[in-house]
Specification:
This protein is mainly beta. The chain has one helix and 18 strands. The strands form three sheets. Strands 1, 2, 3, 6, 11, 12, 13, 16, 17 and 18 form a ten-stranded antiparallel beta sheet that branches. The chain has a six-stranded antiparallel beta sheet with strand order 4-15-7-8-9-10, with no helix packed on it. A hairpin with a 2-residue loop joins strand 8 and strand 9. The termini are close together.
């Protein structure tokens, strides 16, 4: 006998533009700076005059990670110059892209750096895409569409999109770009019958030049 379950998938997309990033609570150190450009942010320091300096950037757009929801954070990064013995790009839930002597890999901190996967991102001014899918029990990451790792960990129900950067050495020179950030929450639950397809797009016309686009959609599909 075939068992058929219908699932209702509700998706709420928030496309975060540069104007929102400009108002996102960027915290500046005295050496590292961040500059909004037309469609990306540039983190930059030249000949850093301190050691182990961080710049913290958290977007004010939390998303949900529970037993019935997934937080999806998609963005692009571009490394232009990595001139330091170590540069860290820290993302949500403690995932860190580390460049050690120019060699990149993903890790997290647990009294020491624990490796998660290698990375193909290099300081060659080429854009790469990163996709994070976060549940209440795990973080999964894809780089340029390729699966990299699933890290099993406890996750708070509300996830903050974070994009911090650190240059370790005195005299460091770093240029690193962040662009096309999209934060999405997926909600799913069982439904007792076939549902029609619906698509709704909402545009915040009352917020000029905000760079925000909101979408909500309902889709029914069959799971066999």
């Amino acid at each position: 006998m075939k068992l058929m379950t219908y699932i209702l998938l509700l998706t709420f997309d928030t496309c975060i533009g540069v104007d929102l990033l400009r108002r996102s609570g960027v915290k500046l150190d005295t050496s590292l700076t961040v500059t909004p450009n037309d469609d990306f942010l540039r983190y930059e320091v030249k000949n850093q005059q301190e050691r182990n300096k961080w710049l913290f950037n958290s977007l004010k757009s939390d998303c949900s990670a529970t037993a019935t929801s997934r937080c999806r954070i998609v963005f692009k990064v571009r490394a232009n110059v990595i001139d330091s013995s170590e540069v860290k790009f820290a993302m949500s839930e403690g995932v860190i892209l580390r460049f050690v002597q120019g060699v990149p890999f993903y890790s997290y901190w647990n009294n020491r750096f624990v490796p998660l996967a290698d990375s193909q991102i290099r300081a060659n001014s080429q854009w790469s895409s990163i996709e994070m899918v976060i549940s209440n029990t795990a973080v999964t990451l894809l780089e340029d569409g390729k699966y990299k790792f699933t890290w099993e960990k406890d996750v708070d129900p509300q996830v903050s999109p974070e994009f911090h950067i650190q240059a370790l050495d005195w005299g460091s020179t770093v240029s690193f770009d962040l662009g096309e950030v999209m934060v999405t929450s997926h909600y799913s639950f069982k439904e007792g019958g076939l549902l029609g397809n619906e698509w709704e797009v909402k545009e915040p016309n009352d917020i000029p030049n905000s760079g925000i686009c909101l979408q909500s959609r309902k889709k029914a599909y069959e799971v066999w």
